[in-house]
Structures
1.
Amino acid sequence: MGDFFAMGGYAAYVWPAYAVAALILAVLLAVSLHGLRRREATLKLLEETRPRRRAARHGNGPIAHGPVAHGPVAEGPAADRARSPAAEGGEG
């Protein structure tokens, strides 16, 4: 067992390298957990202070139930031309 810890005479280099690597991993873990907790707190605050968009738009309470019966929404230049007065027979 002593031979293992001596690392073939390189223990003075190997064990500090392991210590530095372990320290870096511990710091990364701590920073990650801190960021996670901070983002969870931000999310909780946003969820408490802002109404859900679908629920606020339809007045269904905090959660909208069931599918919304809306047709597809056309966007873009083709949709703009289709909605133009010229497409409806007016001046354009």
Note: Residues 9 and 16 are 14 Å apart (CA to CA).
2.
Amino acid sequence: MKIVHKGSEEARNELPTLLEDAQSGRATIITRRGRPVAALVPLSQYQSGTKQQSLLSHEGAARGLWGENSAGTIKKLRADWRARPDGYRPDRLFPRSASQARQIV
């Protein structure tokens, strides 16, 4: 089965035809400026796709990763980062809030 590629404008103008094609089992890739951004596929093909795995089965998998006192470990890491002579500060690379981000700039 050949998959058809359509630009976003063309797909918008031909939507009824593309829906009929999908109903007949044909898929269409929709592009924007030549790059694929979406797929219009038959519902049966969509439903048979890979489902997202639940994370509930991994609950507690990293327990103890940071030691018994994870908050204390993180505080020590931050203190070490602040003491580095090269000025490396991960907390500045990934600010916790918008106000912190404005202070960095």
Note: The longest strand covers residues 35-40.
3.
Amino acid sequence: MNRAMWLDAIVAGRTRDSRNGAAGVLAASLAVVTSIAFSIDTTLRIGATCYLLIAAPAVLLVFAGARPSHAVLRSLQPSKAANV
């Protein structure tokens, strides 16, 4: 069933969401392994460090004016045919 869901996501063009989900599963697995091998305290410190490291690129992207493409904005607006 997992393979069918993966293929469905690829066919539907949702590979970005699938990669995000896969990254979350891998990160959670790595956190469990780190907790078992070292300690929960070490895992929390590593997680906090990762969040602090990602804060700088996030702020730079916000100030750089990263905006969604116009095609995405147009798809969010109601169509003219729906108003008729």
Note: The first helix runs from residue 2 to 11.
4.
Amino acid sequence: MNKLIDFLHRLGPVTTAVLISLILSIIAIEPLFTPNRDAMYYLEAAKAYQSGGWLAADQVFNWPFLSVLIGKLSAITGLSVEDSGYLLSTVFLGPPVD
């Protein structure tokens, strides 16, 4: 905790306030992003892959390649399948645009 306080102190009050504001803004708007219907198939297939392997994912969605990547990333990082899906989508396609 002391390292964090020292780091924030070195940033200065304005930069620290901006950083905290950005973090709080992300926390506030994160629940507003809900997956569309197609994304729900990918996420359900990712969960099926985690619990039952490739064939289970294929039964949910007949193109399970992205779902398998989502499932593997979730297992490796500890992120939820939804957050893993957002991360992979951002890496492959760029950030979402309204």
Note: The chain has six helices and no strands.
